């Protein structure tokens, strides 16, 4: 029977049911996990694939995982179908960056084969960031030089076999992580999410029949592939390139030249990173599956980001990078800060495509970095060991018709959230001294870039360690069409003895004493259009809101303001000449 024989009403119901299953799996993990980075930040993803490993649906969360669920399942299929058949009740754990994981070891994937009437139907899969997974440093390492320093590795192992848990693996985890109850609790949360998906898939197949559901899946994938081809087909054929520099790693290597060539041929898109820097000793490399995942996100932004995502969407996307390069790292390259090169790869494609896509789909450059940090020590009240890890907010680039968004996560984090200050203080026992917008004069334009943040953490006892990594320290967000570049991201430190440690980026690691303050300062997005074209009334409002200084209003925007009322007094000669030229 052809897949086209499924009637449209049934097709819509099955499509929406699959989407609902993905969301329910996601919610199950969020509500049962132990780590704030999972239940507050939502730094994870859940999804379903068919028996061939094709993604059918994915719950919201870290969109940087968009291609990694598929690669996880493919690695399971590759390993187990060659030697043995998977059995009902099996459940696989995997975090191998080079074998389906795609990111770093802390992102632990679980894969549950789903059997219907004794036959393999598909897979439920999720991938969650565990706060602690062993390794040389709590949380994650910003200065590792090989993967063996970064934590436990699970190369597609059976955590459950025919329904029976492998206690040996659990004990290995318990004995090698600093917070075993938290890590193992997160593992069980993932299992609950997978079992939720398994239950719902059984229900939908029981209601409509496995054959009908299979036919609907084929129809949905075909439909998505056809729509994706039509979207790429609307882009002008040609070769579009971008070059850039990526910040050095914490070990002192770099900076790194990177480049991309995007080719549009009919309804196909080819993305080629050949010529980019070789992998480096520091931990900012990304494996190929992580690269593909990043490019899937920008591919959606260039076509139609509102569509329901399955693997059919990406059939006409082809990604290439030289093996052993910073964008296609091989073992034993360090990858704990993989997200930095992943974000830079995405940003290159962004730059290459911005001039040719429909206006409004892409903005000027954004602050790009995940801005990941790790704070560890002893809770100032309870005396318990803690590890706090998380991403940081920053400024997005301006669009052709609007200012950039302020205090948002980077593209790789997507549908994730910040951990509230109250949770940070209660859970981890340090003090949040400051949580404010980083208002700088950078990112000026007809539409200005969004602002980053300043987030301060004060140690309330001895022995707290702060570490983190930021990109865009040396190479701020790019402006577009006359817009100015944004400001850099980095860290600075205010020590109790009055010493100020200036802002640094790429990577930072410091032992803190009681009263020391570590501050994260994230960058402004790039501006769009010439600053002289920004309406004077908007400049005045920016000054009134303390986003722009009165001095910058004159020097950058060419607007003269009353220093007390902020009313517009006039414009500079430079602004006047610009307006006459473009009128």
From TrEMBL:
One Pfam family of this chain: Hydantoinase_B
InterPro entries reported for this sequence: Hydantoinase_B, Oxoprolinase-like
GO molecular function, one term: 5-oxoprolinase (ATP-hydrolyzing) activity
GO biological process: glutathione metabolic process
Domain Hydantoinase B/oxoprolinase, chain residue ranges per copy: 7-531
GO cellular component, one term: cytosol
UniProt xrefs under PANTHER family: 5-OXOPROLINASE RELATED, HYPOTHETICAL 5-OXOPROLINASE (EUROFUNG)-RELATED
Protein name: N-methylhydantoinase B
Organism of provenance: Faecalicatena contorta
């Amino acid at each position: 029977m052809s897949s086209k024989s499924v009637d449209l009403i049934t097709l819509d119901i099955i499509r929406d049911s699959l989407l609902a299953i993905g969301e329910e799996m996601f919610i199950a993990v969020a509500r049962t996990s132990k780590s704030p980075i999972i239940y507050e930040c939502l730094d994870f993803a859940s999804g379903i694939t068919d028996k061939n490993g094709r993604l059918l649906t994915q719950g919201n969360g870290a969109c940087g995982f968009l291609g990694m669920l598929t690669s996880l399942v493919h690695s399971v299929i590759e390993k187990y179908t060659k030697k043995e058949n998977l059995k009902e009740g099996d459940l696989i754990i995997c975090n191998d960056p080079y074998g389906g994981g795609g990111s770093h070891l802390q992102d632990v994937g679980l894969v549950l084969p789903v059997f219907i009437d004794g036959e393999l139907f598909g897979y439920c899969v999720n991938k969650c960031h565990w706060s602690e997974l062993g390794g040389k440093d709590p949380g994650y390492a910003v200065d590792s030089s090989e993967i063996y320093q970064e934590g436990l590795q699970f190369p597609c192992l059976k955590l459950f076999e025919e329904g029976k848990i492998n206690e040996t693996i659990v004990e290995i985890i318990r004995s090698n992580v600093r917070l075993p109850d938290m890590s193992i609790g997160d593992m069980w949360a993932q299992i609950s999410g997978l079992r939720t998906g398994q239950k719902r898939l059984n229900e939908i197949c029981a209601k409509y029949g496995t054959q009908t559901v299979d036919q609907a899946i084929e129809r949905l994938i075909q439909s998505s592939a056809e729509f994706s081809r039509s979207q790429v087909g609307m882009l002008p054929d040609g070769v579009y390139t971008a070059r850039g520099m990526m910040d050095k790693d914490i070990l002192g290597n770099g900076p790194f030249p990177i480049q991309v060539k995007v080719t549009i041929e009919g309804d196909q898109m080819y993305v080629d990173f050949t010529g980019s820097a070789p992998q480096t000793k520091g931990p900012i490399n990304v494996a190929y599956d992580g690269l593909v995942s990043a490019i899937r996100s920008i591919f959606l932004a260039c076509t139609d980001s509102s569509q329901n995502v399955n693997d059919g969407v990406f059939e006409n996307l082809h990604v290439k990078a030289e093996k052993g390069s910073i964008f296609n790292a091989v073992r034993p390259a360090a990858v704990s800060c993989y997200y930095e090169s992943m974000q830079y790869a995405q940003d290159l494609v962004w730059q290459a495509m911005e001039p040719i896509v429909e206006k409004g789909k892409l903005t000027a450059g954004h602050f790009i970095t995940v801005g990941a940090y790790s704070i560890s020590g002893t809770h100032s009240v309870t005396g318990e060991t803690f590890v706090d890890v998380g991403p940081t907010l920053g400024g997005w680039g301006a669009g052709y018709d609007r200012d950039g968004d302020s205090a948002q996560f980077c593209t790789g984090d997507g549908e994730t959230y910040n951990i509230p200050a109250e949770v940070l203080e209660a859970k981890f026992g340090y003090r949040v001294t400051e949580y404010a917008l980083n208002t700088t004069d950078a990112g000026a334009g007809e539409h200005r870039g969004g602002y980053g943040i300043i987030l301060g953490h004060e140690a309330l006892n001895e022995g707290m360690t702060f570490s983190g990594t930021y990109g865009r320290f040396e190479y701020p967000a790019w402006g577009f069409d006359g817009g100015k570049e944004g400001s850099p991201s980095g860290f600075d430190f205010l020590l109790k003895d009055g010493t100020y440690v200036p802002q640094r980026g790429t990577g930072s690691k410091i032992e803190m004493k009681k009263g020391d303050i570590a501050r994260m300062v994230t960058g402004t997005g790039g501006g769009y259009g010439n600053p002289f074209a920004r309406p004077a009334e908007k400049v005045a409002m920016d000054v009134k809101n303390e986003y722009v200084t009165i001095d910058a209003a004159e020097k950058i925007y060419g607007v003269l303001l009353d220093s007390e009322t902020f009313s517009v007094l006039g414009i500079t000669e430079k602004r006047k000449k610009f307006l006459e030229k473009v009128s």
